[in-house]
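Researcher: Please generate the 3D structure of the following complex. Treat every line as part of one assembly.
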Amino acid sequence: MSQSFDAISAQLRKRHRRSARLKWTSMGALGLAGLFLVLFFADMLSKGLPAFQQAYMQVELEYSEEASRMGRAAMDPEVARLVSRTFERVIPRMIRNDPDLLGTSETRWVLANSQVDQYLKGHASKLRDNERAVVDELAEEGRVALRFNTTFFSRGDSKMAESSGILAAAVGTVMTMLVTLAISFPIGVMTAVYLEEFAPDNRLTQLIEININNLAAIPSILFGLLGLAIFINFFGVPRSSPLVGGMTLALMTLPVIIIATRTALRSVPDSIRHAAFGVGCSRWQVVRDHVLPLAMPGIMTGSIIGLAQAMGETAPLIIVGMVAFIPDVSASFTQAATVLPAQIFTWAGEPERAFVEKTAGGILVLLAILIFLNASAVILRKKFERRW
Amino acid sequence: MQTNHLLTLFIGGLLLLGLLAFVLGRAKAARVRASGQAMYAQPDQYAWFTVISSAGPALLVGAAGAFVMLLLGADIPVFLLLAASLAVAAVGAIVGLACVRPEFHARQAIERVIRWLLVGAALISIFTTFGILFSIVFEALRFFQMHSFWEFVTGTVWNPGASFLAAAGRAGEGGSAAQFGSVPLFAGTFMITAIAMLVAIPIGLLAAIYMSEFAPQRVRTLAKPTLEVLAGIPTVVYGFFAAITVAPIVVNVAGFFGLDASFNNAVAPGVVMGIMIIPFISSLSDDVINSVPDSMRQGSLALGMTQAETIRDVVIPAALPGIISASLLAVSRALGETMIVVMAAGMRPNLTANPLEDMTTVTVRIVAALTGDLEFESAETLSAFALGLVLFAVTLSLNLVSVLMIRRFRAKYRVNNL
Amino acid sequence: MNIHVAERSTASMSRHEPGQPVTRNSEANHELSIRVRDLSLWYGESQALKNLNIDLYQKNVTALIGPSGCGKSTFLRCLNRMNDLIPGVRVEGLVEMDGRDINARKMDEVALRRRVGMVFQKPNPFPKSIYENIAYAPRMHDLVGRKAEQDELVERALRDAGLWEEVKDKLHQPGTSLSGGQQQRLCIARAIAVQPDVILMDEPTSALDPISTATIEDLMDKLKRQFTIVTVTHNMQQAARVADYTAFFHLGEIIEYNDTKTMFSNPATKKAEDYITGRYG
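Model: Done. Output below.
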């Protein structure tokens, strides 16, 4: 006869306690991972949100003869020290472009330098005490204020934190992604179609399959070495260009698109293929007219996810030289360009405090784009998801 | 510029020829059809066939010519090459038109071409792997001609500083000779990887256990994609996070305990890399744990085991190959991770066991060697490829072992165990 | 709908009255093991078991038969609360064992499962060695101490399950390396090593070949000297061969519960007769 319930329960007490402990620790681990995520986003938001505001100040400008040679002269020297040097350089050009300005004066809002900006935001600033007093006074009069930072979205990189922006990098990203998609989408889909619909089950096919899985796990920096050694040194593709960056990233994105497309093709039931074969379609016609259209949402979802991945990639682009200083927006595939993550990398290396804010601001923009892409992939999948 | 113009002209010409071939082919097929003869294929298919027979060979000739120019350095004038291609296109179109006959299987011919195109696309992924391999091996061999392999593998000093002088033919002027001993780099890499794994494996595995064994369905469907957000954050962002936020925290905490930590310590990139890798481990482990058949759990519970005992002694051992495979993939990922260490770890090769000191990694040195205005022929630049070769070999073998393990796991549980 | 109600009324008339022993099998033991009163079970909204009343006797084999989907497996799983694992299951009514309501809040289902073991439809050995498959649970339950005791227990369990001769030379090979029938006997050995009172068997032979089935049936006959066995089967010959008592389930109700001889020679209800003679099922 076995033990009574009470005897067993007594023996079990300790074991139940241990069981509960595993439950709580494992729950804690998940919570910890979630906490990391929350802390990370909180940190990025707190560091990056101020980047979307920038200090501007109202100054009186006198377009004198001297100012047409040296912009500083147009302003009160006390104020001139607080204005962005980028603006100072603009003044002579303004006068040159519009000679009527000479001799006139006006009051306008101009970009303040990053020290004023940081001071107003309550961060460490290199302003001297007397300069701080001036800023305080101006602030009281409402002649210096934080406004929405349009510069950040309308300019390229700059050595001056206050006038640097992400537009050049964003355009570079778009150009690079165009190249990436143009290469990896057709090749990826074709490879997947071949492997799923045409390939015989032989050694070569298995080799290709193993190879694709392996390619997905190769460190991204090695793709950079490939880009450098083959695309740049061998084929002579211009260094730092969206073309070489896009080609390199295309090879990285290829496995993602292939794997997603194969999954999508596999989820199309065989009955569809049989039906199409039954009415006399050839294999290619079956794929083109029946299987591919049904698999398209899955293929699009996979491609968007692959694109999002490529968009955040930095290491291989550094190797192929896409970390150049790009102050002007250029929409050429063969000229030097930079991309958002590379811009973030460059800014992160700047010693000036104001650039930390720009870096985090750039990160927020990048994350927003990635979240948008991934969310649209999810929505696409939800919308077209079909159970057979 | 000249080449670009020529290229535009060429493409325009080719398109024109293609269009011509299409129209003519279609017209001829339609005429034959109208005359009442039965044909094997549709007029459109004949038309497409003519297009392919005109553009295909032309593109092949163009590509082959470009390849010969690049590879053999043969000096073929671009103009001549493109003209030749266009001529081939014209000939192809005529041949294609001649083929438009009732007894010709245009559709089959087209599909044969399509099939070969698909095969070609599938081969590109193989070319990529070989491209990586060859580009790395070739340059690495050149490096090993300059510096001994043995020194590279066993040397404990990495000091490439003087190599650019050697490349400029001024060896011996810069004082000490360059040294390429990779041991400190690998030590740093493994230290940071180890820290990352210490963070990622326990948290990832426990989170997977919670999601698959304890959590209510609703929590599970929410938690998994949320965790995967961690894997979707670009590494450059993690690098910034590690350098700006985590490193000072580590320094402060170490200072609190009276320890001296560098701002480029190994802990910050290690921990952040670990956080990034959590979802790799948790998602894969969760899948694997879920695929352990429920009958295992029920068998254990029916013997009077508690849930934790069932998980520890039955579920985890059954899922172990999958969990190990996930961890190996994670290790491979950590070894090859670049941006986090470039931004948060040190530049100084430092052979130490103290994670609070600054140390550098293989990937950091690769980036350092290939950025800046170095001569490509210098030993330092080439050393990047030697390091890349080792990285490639290590990650490749880790991936292969991992794939084999997960295959065995699948084979074990997909089939009925009768 | 009307027909259904009519059927139910005839069924309840001829249903075995709770508390009243069914026709007795002369050699059988009649000590009560598990008493079930008004047991109902819902999967979400749909009711799977309807007011079941049954007494299960110690050291007997009780077979549960009936067409598939009739609730016999669900009922079996009520006896060691394996249904707890399925979300959305609600149980009402009394299942009493050793004077305790096993569905009571205070009842520890882990303790219950130690006394009510289970063997499943498909053999499910742990991914461990044959030896560990058996020694694992007793060790966790502190039933054995020293290695020698453990060895002895493993041997006894394997002998009781009739597997010892076949595996004694390969105790440290994985349990999954055995054949299907051997795996199922390993699972039985694993269950009896914990020394439960009751062993539940959920169609234990449905995944096996005829020879393994015969071995397991012989085994059940031997094991009933030590254990109360409740088995679900949809093989009527098997019920007739191994069971002392048989309960016939239909649409979540027990239509008839009787000693096996009576059930198969002279069933009291039309429905049971139809099922047994193969009119449906």
